[in-house]
Amino acid sequence: MTRALLVALALAGGVAFSAGIDALEQPSAAGQAPLEPDAAVDSPQPAAPPSATPTLADLAAGKLKLVDLAWPLNDKSAYWPGENYQPFELHTIATLEKDGVLSKTFSSPEHLGTHLDAPNHFERGKPSVDQIPAEDLFSHAVVIDVRGPVSADADYLVSLDDVRRFEREHGRIPQHAVVLANTGWSKFWKNSTRYQNRDVRGRLHFPGFSPEAVKFLIDKREVRGVGLDTLSVDRGISRDFPVHHLLGQAECYGLENLAHLDELPPAGFYLFVAPIKIETGSGGPARVFAAWAPSDATGGDGS
Ligand SMILES: [Zn+2]
Fold first, then answer.
1. CATH number, residue 159
2. What domain count does the chain have?
């Protein structure tokens, strides 16, 4: 009974949220009687408490919890340590003192800091970052906590068992969601040597997703993407990058180097993913926001 109610609430939340987005795009089509012009100004409605069915109006009114999952970009930002990759660079080209205006120029690999991997990153003929449909960038999301196993094994892979355990505890992952993994690796973000975690032979050691888990999420849950708080959705020691290939083939995206995943509820939140729109790009630095109603009860009830 409780679970059925929670699922209904979660579904209703999705509908209400979608309706909110529709209402923004088509303000005259929201199906509401128009307000008298001065009624809107003179008769403010009493503030309603945040509900378990958040809307964009709740978000705009500051009633939702909102977490920025992106790290700031600077010359220390971690990036994939490949040949020809360069650190982020920022140069001032005009100053208030000299020019009356502050302006800068920057350069960066696409795969630096908090960023999105587009389907064409590993797969020919698949969408580039600018071709990802806008509607795929607004999603339900969940976060699977694997900090425990990762603390014992830096090469840990988020497993199908982890996904199943998550669903037993928090309910079925919604269709078209983005599935995040909190590996705890973000605690090394400020120390790039530790974040890369190379062994004596130069191989990287950090956790990632298992191909089995990602295949399940793509085939059975129709996810839009997966993301985590390390340099790569494939673990550091991977040589063949199976998760990147699976995501690209399915026209899903990856999110890497996410921040603040420990501030999220396990489920019942929404993700806004805003990658830089580089034409033909294989990905790019992204702002990623999570939002949810503070009173949302769908996130932690194991009943
Ligand atoms: Zn990448």
1. 3.50.30.50
2. 1
Residue position matching structure tokens 């699977």: 144
Residue 255 has pLDDT above 70, yes or no: yes
Q: Does the predicted model carry a pTM greater than 0.85?
A: no
The residues near 185 (Cβ < 8 Å, ≥ 6 apart) are 150, 195, 206, 207, 228, 229, 230
Q: Residue 256: which domain range?
A: 67-292
201 CA to centre of ligand 1 in angstroms: 23
CA of 46 to the centre of ligand 1 (A): 45
Distance 37 CA to ligand 1 centre (A): 49
Note whether 6 and 171 are within 8 A (CB): yes
CA dihedral 145, 212, 253, 268 (to 10 degrees): -40
Whether residue 51 lies inside any domain: the answer is no
Residue with tokens 């089995």: 212
Q: Does some domain include residue 270?
A: yes
30 belongs to a structural domain = no
Is 146 inside a domain boundary?
yes
275-288 per-position pLDDT tens digit: 999 999 999 999 99
